[in-house]
Amino acid sequence: MTNSKTKHKLTIPKFKQIKKENNKITMVTAYDYPSAILAEEAGVDMILVGDSLGNVVLGYDSTLPVTIDDMVYHTRSVIRGAQHTFVVADMPFMTYHGSIDQTLRHVARLMQEGQAHAVKMEGGTEICLAVDACVKAGVPVLGHIGLTPQSVHQLGGYRIQGKETEDAKRLLEDAKALERAGAFAVVLELVTEEVAAYISEQISIPTIGIGAGRGVDGQVLVFHDVVKYASPYRDKKFVKTYADIGAQIREGISQYVQEVKGGVFPGPEHVFTAEDTVVESLYGAGKAERKAEQVK
């Protein structure tokens, strides 16, 4: 376990240095205070407060209903838990596709109210003006191409990207455009391994993959996927789970229910007792003794 108090938060210049040194960047999502603490203690380099919280935490079928208020609230919670880790907040659906002024107002909320260190935007060449404006305003931007969940209806579902030549060329063009616009790194989601590796070679900023194979500069997974914190849990080809917390939580709560119904909990070791004089004042001397026998 990493000592979070001695951990040095990554900075934008350090990200490029990590790529040059051929090291790997580790990133997980987190959506609240306790998961942020655990992620930081585990030693991750970055935490993403993803709009995937819509699916994972809020119970929506997609990320589309997630609002800027949701993102501010959850980002602020994560920041309180991970004070020594670089935290990126997702820009939710349709908060960066209007005017530049509207985009910057939404970004300002995530940075000022949410206290994020950077924001993430989905898209390629079509969002580069927004990326450029944010970077010029002093806001670090993490790009996101490949499978972009906010555009899932336009993409025709959760499909693997980079299977065809034209698609591969488009992804490379998008990555280079984001680099020129000033993005400090780019997420590649559900992209074929060969295409993701080639993109990583062609740009100077780090690539962080999720379902993008082994040739990228880092990996990101959802906290709840890493530890199977869900019920029922749906296995995913691109995910490796490292614990089964969901089963342990369910079993623990089930045992609690059984013990309460069976009169096992609380036991003598879980209760607080009053002085005899207090009990006598409530029940009377004789009744106090009988009451004590009843609760044994």
TrEMBL record:
<dbReference type="InterPro" id="IPR015813">
    <property type="entry name" value="Pyrv/PenolPyrv_kinase-like_dom"/>
</dbReference>
<feature type="binding site">
    <location>
        <position position="51"/>
    </location>
    <ligand>
        <name>Mg(2+)</name>
    </ligand>
</feature>
<comment type="pathway">
    <text>Cofactor biosynthesis; (R)-pantothenate biosynthesis; (R)-pantoate from 3-methyl-2-oxobutanoate: step 1/2.</text>
</comment>
<keyword id="KW-0479">Metal-binding</keyword>
<dbReference type="GO" id="GO:0003864">
    <property type="term" value="F:3-methyl-2-oxobutanoate hydroxymethyltransferase activity"/>
</dbReference>
<comment type="function">
    <text>Catalyzes the reversible reaction in which hydroxymethyl group from 5,10-methylenetetrahydrofolate is transferred onto alpha-ketoisovalerate to form ketopantoate.</text>
</comment>
<feature type="binding site">
    <location>
        <position position="120"/>
    </location>
    <ligand>
        <name>3-methyl-2-oxobutanoate</name>
    </ligand>
</feature>
<keyword id="KW-0566">Pantothenate biosynthesis</keyword>
<dbReference type="Pfam" id="PF02548">
    <property type="entry name" value="Pantoate_transf"/>
</dbReference>
<comment type="similarity">
    <text>Belongs to the PanB family.</text>
</comment>
<keyword id="KW-0460">Magnesium</keyword>
<keyword id="KW-0963">Cytoplasm</keyword>
<keyword id="KW-0808">Transferase</keyword>
<dbReference type="GO" id="GO:0015940">
    <property type="term" value="P:pantothenate biosynthetic process"/>
</dbReference>
<feature type="active site" description="Proton acceptor">
    <location>
        <position position="189"/>
    </location>
</feature>
<dbReference type="InterPro" id="IPR003700">
    <property type="entry name" value="Pantoate_hydroxy_MeTrfase"/>
</dbReference>
<dbReference type="GO" id="GO:0000287">
    <property type="term" value="F:magnesium ion binding"/>
</dbReference>
<feature type="binding site">
    <location>
        <position position="122"/>
    </location>
    <ligand>
        <name>Mg(2+)</name>
    </ligand>
</feature>
<keyword id="KW-0489">Methyltransferase</keyword>
<feature type="binding site">
    <location>
        <begin position="51"/>
        <end position="52"/>
    </location>
    <ligand>
        <name>3-methyl-2-oxobutanoate</name>
    </ligand>
</feature>
<comment type="subunit">
    <text>Homodecamer; pentamer of dimers.</text>
</comment>
<dbReference type="GO" id="GO:0008168">
    <property type="term" value="F:methyltransferase activity"/>
</dbReference>
<dbReference type="InterPro" id="IPR040442">
    <property type="entry name" value="Pyrv_kinase-like_dom_sf"/>
</dbReference>
<feature type="binding site">
    <location>
        <position position="90"/>
    </location>
    <ligand>
        <name>3-methyl-2-oxobutanoate</name>
    </ligand>
</feature>
<protein>
    <recommendedName>
        <fullName>3-methyl-2-oxobutanoate hydroxymethyltransferase</fullName>
        <ecNumber>2.1.2.11</ecNumber>
    </recommendedName>
</protein>
<dbReference type="GO" id="GO:0005737">
    <property type="term" value="C:cytoplasm"/>
</dbReference>
<feature type="binding site">
    <location>
        <position position="90"/>
    </location>
    <ligand>
        <name>Mg(2+)</name>
    </ligand>
</feature>
<dbReference type="GO" id="GO:0032259">
    <property type="term" value="P:methylation"/>
</dbReference>
